[in-house]
Amino acid sequence: MHELRFDQDLCRGCSTQECLTKCQYMEIDRETAQKEIPKIARGEDSFVLHECATCYACEEYCTSGNHPFYLIVEKQEARGISPVPRPLIQRAVNIGIPFRGRPEIEEINGPVLNIGAFSELKDLIQGKLFEGITPISTDERKMFHYFCQLMYLHYGKDSVIKERLPGIIETIARHRPTEVVCFHDECYGAYTSYCEAHGIAVPFRPVHFYEYLYNRLVELKDMIRPLNLKAAYQRPCSSRLSPDKHRFVGRIFDLIGVEGVKREFVDENALCCAGAIEGQKQEGSRKRAAMQQQKNVEDMKKAGAEVCVFNCPACFQTLGGIVARNGIRPIHMSDLCRLAVGETPAGWR
Ligand code: SF4
Ligand code: SF4
User: Fold this and answer.
1) Which carries the bigger pLDDT value, residue 116 or residue 218?
2) Is 62 a pocket residue for ligand 1 (Cβ < 6 Å)?
3) 221-340 has which fold?
């Protein structure tokens, strides 16, 4: 059930093997990649299964539409290779259980905004930008009914996603939404990339949060006052599942008078927040994560960033304090957009 669609013929005819040769966390040349990819696909052991930082980026690097990262996670689980210590995995799997009883669902028959399991962040969806759209997961007692579960890719637990995600989709569909705006990249990636790769039906139209914000800003353009800020953008790992939507970062910045600073670790070359690496069980993981975070923040400083813009709440939690200690203000993209239309988000002066 819900078998991954991974095409080994595409790999045989692939002239680049960029899924692995572009990996920023392992040094892999083309010759090695040519050997390791078929081994992984055949279900054999590979150092890649043990050393993968779960940054999701190879999903973007493969331009043939194959799914190398989903393949890695599936084979990690099949071979009993867990990227993080097992007690942590069990705890995480228990936290995200979606179905304790069947929730009562209100039919909306209009656009809905799914904030996923981040009900504590409902302040981020206040104000003019969110007029006319109904939030569906702001009740903390019910938020896990809307949790897309893709986080378990970091834990080598693909089976948990396959088991729970169809039920989550059914819950959302019972609202009868005309479209579902996904606050978090990971939810959007779940309902588009992951479901497509695994043959899971999605009976509603998912909309990326940035596409929604951009379109609302265009509607409110007479209210926009340019912010004249220099910004670094912290690209979340799950943005690699929808690289075609990443362009909205630049389009939003242009619309609200924000300059995206020119730096090394940007766009395809972005470094993840390293939150997932911190928790990995390989020796030296914490040090490795701290070094990466410092490298990332130094790059932002060198480029002259005044603010660091986040979408993912987990990236904000991992990196927000570090950027602040380095003199760069962390801010969520939605709050940045609210500033541009004359609103002052909580905690911003
Ligand atoms: S997964 Fe994609 S990039 Fe990697 S070898 Fe196969 S086709 Fe090439
Ligand atoms: S997920 Fe990231 S670390 Fe793992 S193989 Fe792909 S690019 Fe490398």
Assistant:
1) 218
2) yes
3) Rossmann fold (3.40.50)
**pLDDT tens, 144-195?**
788 999 999 999 999 999 999 999 999 999 999 999 999 999 999 999 999 9
Question: In this structure, what are the phi and psi dihedrals at residue 243, rounded to the nearest 5 degrees?
Answer: -60, -25
List the structure tokens of 164: 């729970």
Confidence of residue 44 (pLDDT cuts 50, 70, 90): very high
Q: What is the pLDDT averaged over residues 283-301? A: 92
- Closest-approaching ligand to the CA atom of 56: 2
Per-residue pLDDT at 99 exceeds 80? no
Q: Where in the chain is the domain with CATH 3.40.50.1860?
A: 221-340
The answer, yes or no, to whether any atom of ligand 2 lies below 6 A from the CB of 17, is no
Q: Helices marked H in the chain — which ranges?
A: 8-12, 18-21, 30-41, 47-51, 57-61, 68-78, 86-95, 158-173, 185-189, 195-198, 209-219, 247-255, 275-278, 285-302, 313-325, 333-340
* pLDDT exceeds cutoff 70 at 223: yes
* Protein residue with least CA distance to atom 1, ligand 1: 68
248 pLDDT exceeds 90?
yes
> 71 and 5 in contact (C-beta within 8 Å)?
no
18 lines ligand 1 (CB under 6 A): yes
Mutate to test the pocket of ligand 1, among 5, 11, 75 (most ligand atoms within 8 A of CB): 11
User: Ligand 2 atom 6: the closest Cα is on which residue?
Assistant: 58
Question: Whose C-alpha lies nearest to ligand 2, atom 5?
Answer: 52
Distance CA 272, CA 269 (A): 10
Q: Whose CA is nearest to atom 3 of ligand 1?
A: 62
> What pTM, to 2 d.p., does this model score?
0.95
Ligand 2 centroid to residue 55 C-alpha, Å = 5
